[in-house]
Predict the 3D structure of the following.
Amino acid sequence: MSEKKFSKKHEWVSLEGDIATVGITKHATEMLGDIVFVEVPDAGKAIEKEGQAAVVESTKAASDVYSPISGEVTEGNKTIVDDPGSVNGDPEGASWFFKLKIKDKGELESLMSKDEYDKFCKENPN
Amino acid sequence: MGVQKTALYDLHKSLGAKFVPFAGYEMPIQYKDGIVKEHISTRTHAGFFDVSHMGQFFLEGDETLVEALEKIIPSDLKSLKVNHSKYSFLLNDDGGIIDDLIVTKTNKGFCIILNAACKENDIKHISKFLGKNHKHLLNNDLSLIALQGPKSVEILEKLIPGVSELKFMTGNNFNYDSESLYITRSGYTGEDGFEISISNKKVKKLIDFLINNGVKPVGLGARDTLRLEAGLCLYGHDLNEKINPIEANLKWAIAKKRKEVGGFNGWNKIKNLLTNGSEKIRVGIKPEGKVIARENTKIFSSNGEEIGFVTSGTFGPSVNRPVAMGYVKSEFSEIGTLIQLEVRGKKYEGKVSELPFYKKSYVK
């Protein structure tokens, strides 16, 4: 898999061939708290960059998950739908949200590296 | 007035609290452990909650004080014994709930615990009914600590002998660190526990003792999931001035005698509703699956007719499922009625459910 790229809305994406895996960051899960509900998109759904793609809810509130890139969903992660709490455990690994067939690799350019993202989080603590 | 802080603010900070503005106060919504762990540790062990933002309102006076208060509070205050508490409400002329409260008979009068967001307005309202010889004081020198959970009694008894003898919804004065403090056996979690009224000067010492005895701090987040599992209302969400006790399914909190004789604000309306029932009523709701129906979620009948709305909804960590409360047209209020909940534009199945979702273990 390629090196992870990060969005300002706290999603990560990594690329393998033309299939991108998308999830929410560790920082995002720390802000959300205990995750108790997840909704992921079905295979075949077309998603635009920065479009609403999934839902994550903690005991406190519901949040939308946006896609950092455009493409067609190939798979939603059913494991996290059945066990939402697992997202708190491994958000940047096994608890990815969905995979999609990437439309334009150029869109990755606008995203942040790990270092840039960490800096962004420090500057924007909320 | 700027943002207010309770006497324990610095302690909350040192315990890793995340703060939120709540009713004009900076209050901890959670600590390091997070809402689910705080919730579970309250149910299985014990947790403490700083609820010092709530109003501790003391009233003193002769028998005319009882008469004055009975005009706005539909409890049988005349028969209330010293050190006994009742859950009740302040009512407006239309029977709407201005606030829900716990009223305790004291030696000199009454103590009323008021919701933080309502306390200023409540006091204005209560004052209108008071006479010249009735004294009242909102005591801001006192903190209020809720200690909740099955281990509460064992732990507090070590520090303050005698508290284990209190029955649910009674209280008494106890000595602690050469000071008198008032403790009631009550709470807002569905667990056994205590509410401790203690001076701002001594509260830190009490909390240090609790922490050293394994009691975890619990924030407003878990307070909300605990009270919702216990089927208890949150003012401003499940209750407001446009909702009366009959609609709120709280007629049990109106004293039997008062239901017969009346003589309190909104009595005409309430008398009528007691006979004929109300158009809408508060019910428990279990959404199917994992979907969470939050406040303002629209409720539909199985035929697609809009029949109400959710007023509180979350995930219940102890019942391990989403739970909610809301108002539905009374004909749809029977336990087990199938309903639909509109979440993010999609309709999900749900059922009208018994309250509480989580069984209580009060000491009677």
